[in-house]
Prior knowledge:
Keywords: Membrane, Transmembrane, Transmembrane helix, Transport. This is BT1 family protein. It is found in: Membrane. It is a multi-pass membrane protein. Pfam families: BT1. The protein is an all-alpha fold. 73% of the residues lie in helices and 1% in strands. The protein has 25 helices and 2 strands. Strands 1-2 form a two-stranded antiparallel sheet. Helix 4 packs antiparallel against helix 24, helix 14 runs antiparallel to helix 24 and helix 15 runs parallel beside helix 19. The mean pLDDT is 77.
Amino acid sequence: MIRLWAGLRGWFDAVVLDLARQMRWSFLPPLMVYFAYGASGITSVVGTFFVKDYLDVSAVFLAGLGFWVGLPWALKMPMGHLVDLLWRWKWLLVFFGAGLIAASFAIMYGLATRVDWMPGVMPVTAWFVLASLLSPTGYVLQDAVADALSVEAVPKVDESGHPLEETTVRALHTTMQTLGRVALIGALSAVAALNITLFAGIEDLPDSAKGAVYGRIYLIGLAIPVISVSGVLLAKWQQNRQIAALIRRGQSRTEAEAHFAPEGGETKPNWAYFIGGGLFIAISITLGLSDLPYAQEMIFAGSLAIVLYLMRQLLAVLEPAKARALVGTAIIIFVFRATPLPGAGATWFTIDELDFDPQFLAVLSLITSVLTLVGMFVLRPLMANHTIVYIVVLLSLAAGLLSLPNIGLYYGIQNWTAPLTGGLVDARFIAILDTAMESPLGQVAMIPMLAWIARNAPDNLKATFFAVMASFTNLALSASSLGTKYLNQVFTVTRQVKAPDGSPQVPADYSQLGLLLIVVAVIGTVVPLIVVELVQRSRLRSND
């Protein structure tokens, strides 16, 4: 027993306490910006019910909108390079992003509370699409700055101004990236807990009163941009204090400020990033406003071509072996993230057929975020001691296994388990159990790649590296949205839509949802494993 207790104490020290010991106050500003992004989850549940109750849109439409919402993240290419160029003034981008986020929440508040003049200016669906696009654009701007701040936050010198050892700096970079994910998931946990309180008793309210609850949540969301702005102001204050301390120790202002400038000197503009970003915007707007068939597919193909071109330029500054390994790793993660999802129909089924109310969905969201947070600590040794390839294979197999409970719920497994267990293992119990097992896996794959970039990318191009690689992997989410749309066109799922007088206008039809869930599970498990095998047999083999 003593040996077991000693082993547990050693494990807890290595997994949790060691991470806390490596925390630095300079890490706090980027963590605040990441926290603000995670806190955006406060509107995830209300958004689902707002769409279901207020908008007459299909699952295919929402999957298509998911494609457009994901595209602004490809703008991290020019944004990341702009951050490197405007290193001393990058905080201004956070202010601009905060304005876009606030505008998005203000629009949704107006829609939820039925502001009279808004439908007269544009249809409610158009307002919703505008709000859906403004918010991610703001988060893209802030995330590009947060990536740069996460590099700047890692100290290069000790309190006396002496350079830190390379091993110490490397460990601090890994800690910073891990804490960034912790801040994001921690925010999701906090707002999920808040949602449980905000949605308490909403199922008993008349429809006219639910809008006020929805509006209050969007109003609370206006605190999110305040958090991110406070983070960059804190970073500026911390840096000024450190510069003043170095000057008091006898360094000149130029020498003191040099500690916070990127190594390699001033970054020279690479116009290819801005030209590529401009082409991306031009292609997206031109095709998006046209009536051409397959406009989304053409935008995706054009965006992917631009990103690949910029990646090729960026990888030229790396050693050939490192460049090939990074390409192989990026391909594996791209395919892993590009696998399709069931779409909105799966959530509609749980609401209409399983009677999952907003408060219970908020409970599931809280379980997801809390256990993801715990899992990131518990799985930290796994991430540190195994390659990204190993992690992706493990996650793919786990995803296939963990899709079984959702498939079982559709086919009524709860009708068999509930009588056998005295009502204990009902639909909600199975949903909670599935969420608890699946939660820790979502954020794991990206952390090793982010730490690799922080360690190996040239110091004066860190933000650009983060941005281009993030654009590539985030385009995978656009590919996932396209795949989701295709599958929803093949397997049609519709929810019940009521007319203003309450009479059914469109009947609910979940008859094809079961096949959709099975196909998604098979694709999500098999395709990443095939790609891993192909990459590992090629010159792009990754051992990191």
